[in-house]
Every structure is written in C-alpha cells, then in structure tokens.
Design goal:
By secondary structure, the chain is an alpha+beta fold. It contains eight helices and six strands; from the N terminus they run ααααββααβαββαβ. A hairpin with a 3-residue loop joins β1 and β2. The chain is elongated.
C-alpha cells in the first residue's frame, strides 16, 4: 500500500482508523507528559495522555455525527475542546514566593496536547506526530536555554527530596550563605514515602543556579535536588 493510499484510508472513518487514531493520541500525549512527570510537575504522563485522547475522541465523534446524520459541523465539538481545556490549564497555574507564577508551561502544554488530539482525531496523523516532536523538544531542551536568558535576580523553583523535613533548615542556611533568598515552600509529606518539597528561590546574588545545586547536593540528608522552573 502506497503512503498516499494509506494516508487516505486513515483519514476515512473506519474501525481501523479509529483504533489507530486513539492509540496514536495516547502515544503522543504520553510522550509529552513523560518529561513533565520526570520533572515533578503537577500534570504528568497520564494527564497528558487523557487530554490528548479525550480531544481525539471528541473529534472522531464530531466526524461520526456528521456522516451519520449528514448534518451539523464536525469541527464544532473540537472548538469547544480548545476553549474548554483552558479551565484545566488554569487549575495548574499557581502563584508562589513573591509573585512567582508557576504552571504556565504546564497549562500551555495541556492546551497544545488537546490540539494535537484534535488533529489526530481528524485523521491528519502526520501533523500530530510532527507537533508532538516539536512540543517535546520545547519542554525538554528549551528549559535550559530559557534559564540562561532570565535575569540573575529572577525567581526559580527547585524540587527537593529529603530524608526528613528537618533537613530544610540546612537548605535555608546553604541558600542564605550564597546570598539567595527563599520564598514559598510547598511540602509533600506522604505516608511511607520520603518527604518532598518545591522551594521558590530568588537569585539576588548573581551566582549561577549550578552553584546552588552543587552546594545543596553536598548537604547530608538531601537525596535529590533539581531545577524545575
């Protein structure tokens, strides 16, 4: 089967094309969410998979209704997804520290994931795959570039895993010794799990984030620490 014939058959509404669209939507959403989950962001792999899959199903449903009843606009349901996903994205945005806003990239990623699901749901699989690759590159590799471009006195956040919450005191002391200020601290202390925290820090000393990470890694009792936003 030629590529053109295969592409045309996948654009038609059939059992095979629906199965392929659903599976591809799950893969694309999961690919984007995988990096977000590794970075300890609130919306992880399953969230992105569900958003992309849901948008895909909505688009397939719109197409089915159009062909089934020969009436209506197959894109109408998709338009509602684009506007409605904003509520989910807004819920991932929080303000911490001193007017430090977190979650904007997560919100944008969820919205884009929904758009990718809509594209796949229409049968335009090639565009969905290319868009997924582009989003993955942005969320994984552009974060380092963005970190180098921000002002030295800007706020940023660290994810920290500790043996015990008391180790946060040493983290505060280490941060202060480097001339940086600690803002909001969100602690996640789940039963039978090591405590975790997201710490907002203001780089008012002009030192690099790498210096801070290296210093914190040297503190006994801190298992993992990494920059997240």
């Amino acid at each position: 089967m030629s590529i053109a014939l295969w592409s045309r058959s996948m654009s038609e509404l059939s059992i095979l094309s629906m199965i392929l669209r659903v599976i591809l939507a799950m893969i694309c959403g999961g690919t984007i969410g995988w990096d977000r989950q590794r970075s300890k962001h609130p919306a992880g792999m399953r969230t992105y998979m569900l958003v992309c899959l849901g948008a895909c199903v909505v688009m397939i449903t719109g197409e089915f209704l159009f062909y089934k009843y020969n009436a209506g606009d197959p894109a109408r349901l998709g338009a509602q997804v684009i506007s409605g996903i904003g509520f989910l994205g807004a819920g991932s945005i929080v303000i911490s520290g001193r007017s430090k806003i977190r979650g904007l990239t997560t919100a944008a990623g969820l919205w884009t994931s929904a758009c990718i699901g809509l594209v796949i749901g229409t049968g335009f699989l090639e565009c969905g795959v290319v868009a997924t690759f582009a989003v993955y590159i942005i969320v994984k590799y552009f974060k380092k570039l963005e970190g180098k471009m921000v002002y030295n006195d800007g706020w940023f956040s660290l994810y920290v895993q500790l043996e015990e919450i008391a180790r946060l005191t040493e983290l505060y002391e280490c941060t202060g010794s480097l001339g940086m200020k600690v803002g909001d601290v969100q602690i996640y202390n789940k039963k039978d799990e090591l405590p975790e925290a997201v710490v907002s820090i203001q780089n008012s000393s002009g030192k690099s984030r790498e210096e801070l990470l290296a210093a914190l890694h040297g503190i006994k009792g801190i298992i993992e620490v990494k920059y997240i936003s």
